[in-house]
Amino acid sequence: MANTPPIPGRDREQQLEQLSPFELRESLIALGTEEQRRAARPLLDAGRGNPNFLTAAPREAFFQLGLFAVEDSRAAGSWSTDLVAQPSPSGIAARLQSWLDARPEAPGVQMLGATLVWAKDQGWDLDAFVYEFVDGILGAHYAVPPAMLEYCSKIAARYLGSIMGDGFPGPDEVDVFATEGGTAAMCYIFDTLFTNELLSPGDSVAIMAPVFTPYLDIAALPEYALNQVLIHADATFPDGKHSWQFSPEQVDKLRDPAVKLLVCINPTNPPSVRIADDTIAKIAEIVREDNPGLIIITDDVYATFIDGFRSLSAVVPDNTILVYSLSKYFGATGWRLGLVATSRTTVLDQALAKLPEQTKHLLAQRYSSLTDDAEALTFAQRLVADSRDVALNHTAGISQPQQVQLALFALFDMLDTERVYRSAAMKLIADRLAALLEGLDITLHPDPLRTGYYIELDFMAYVHKHYPPEFATFLDKTYEPADILFRLAAQSEIVALNGSGFDGPPWSIRLSLANLDEDDYRTIGQAIRRVGDDYAAEWRAASGTATQ
């Protein structure tokens, strides 16, 4: 295309392919922005996972509750117009109910009223419950307990139980820690596993791939230096198309007791499919029969975008560390709301009890500012302390206002018994996928396990199916796989990510289906098809092949 920004040469593309996909994205954005300015068209960034939708009701409830909290504080006393007292817990539930009754049509009021009814149905002390929310939303104190406020923790545990499937520990059988998004959860977990010598450099970690690339990068950090055993999504449908599921032979790698950790994203990122039930059952069987000490990190952020979900944290709860983020489903990446959950009968605590005496002695010194009985500290308690270098354990966790918003998000989903919001979110994603496929002029194999929050398109698989083998040879010999990304950015102001950066096929393209409008995905599909046509034309010109 004439007058488009220059595409980097092959040597430069090779260098950029070594970066994390999220760092490569910055180069693509720069190229796409240059063309955007020239063509006066919007940049379509399909590399971002942040959704362009959000949940309204729990936010409205949050802001209404904040208004009540300030008014109740002012009513409790003041020293000047803006120097007011903190609210009193006595009778606060009745005061909130009266405040809500006076504003029946205000946004968020209905949800707050339903929340009071729900809390009463749990048998909770309503004054204590409301005061925690009111004091929390004002943000006047450190959170106590530091891991999570009492009622916020109970709500989070119930919410996880409602979405993770049968077998997930009951709310009194699980420890929950609120973190600054799933990213902080990842960092804290690896830190505590290594600090407590549950993992050591050189240990083997199995990673189900393709995978969210930071898991690969963290495992490779020099201070961790884990031996990566990749479990590839190598299964296909009968027609040869990727199913992005895992063959029994791949899963059997977990039978080796040298594999101490399994990292799993379910539904997967970027293929975005729910891991098949037989694979989940096989992992459980391997844990039961061959590798009972296996530690599993399951990152289940996309669990609410698919029906019939059942997490490994529900199937082998004692072996599992659950990571969950509220960012995607509720459109809340900026809130930084994540959860870590572990069973109170976790194998992690059993492993801590079996540590060598010398290691226990060193850990007792590490945690001496917390307790004179460090051996009694659970993994969950150590995780909280380690997140603040132990010395600041009393200030661990996310802020109280964040916890209140987290609890309101969770309550909203549990109160939505007809699944109206969930159905709408799933349909929104499905319609965008359909528009992309229309633009590409292709079909995907019908798959009830497909979540569709992302899609990984294997361009080379398409080439092998629709062109002679010589065309695939030409592409590999002439171009870097990232070239297609740079063409999309330079010619069509479209940003996509390289699937290879997630340990996917070299010529695969990873697109988010959450952050652009339906027509944009149709445009993206058409642009990818044009790039493919350009490659085919170049191949025909170079080989003298007649136009097909």
Give your account of this protein's structure.
- Its EC number is 2.6.1.-.
- Residues 181-378 form the Aminotransferase class I/classII large domain.
- This is Aminotransferase.
- Belongs to the class-I pyridoxal-phosphate-dependent aminotransferase family.
- It comes from Gordonia caeni.
- The two termini are 22 Å apart.
- It is globular, with a radius of gyration of 26 Å.
- The strands form three sheets. It has a seven-stranded mixed beta sheet with strand order 2-8-7-6-5-3-4, with helices on both faces. A three-stranded antiparallel beta sheet has the order 9-12-11.
- β5 (259-265), α11 (277-289) and β6 (295-299) form a beta-alpha-beta unit.
- It folds into three domains: 10-49 and 420-543, Alpha-Beta Complex (Aspartate Aminotransferase, domain 1); 57-138, Histone, subunit A (Orthogonal Bundle), CATH 1.10.20; 150-415, Type I PLP-dependent aspartate aminotransferase-like (Major domain) (Aspartate Aminotransferase, domain 2).
- It is α/β, with parallel strands linked by helices.
- It contains 21 helices and twelve strands.
- The model has no long low-confidence stretch (mean pLDDT 93).
The main sheet comes to: 7 strands, mixed
**Main CATH class of the largest domain:** Alpha Beta
Report the CATH topology name of the largest domain: Aspartate Aminotransferase, domain 2
Mean pLDDT: 93
Number of strands: 12
Rg over CA atoms: 26 Å
Instruction: Report the sheet-strand fraction.
Output: 5-15%
Low-confidence stretches: none
Question: Which percent bin holds the helix content?
Answer: 40-55%
Given helix and strand content, the structural type is alpha/beta
EC number: 2.6.1.-
Cofactor: pyridoxal 5'-phosphate
Pfam families: Aminotran_1_2 (PF00155)
InterPro entries: Aminotransferase_I/II_large, Aspartate_4-decarboxylase, AspAT/PAT-like, NHTrfase_class1_PyrdxlP-BS, PyrdxlP-dep_Trfase, PyrdxlP-dep_Trfase_major, PyrdxlP-dep_Trfase_small
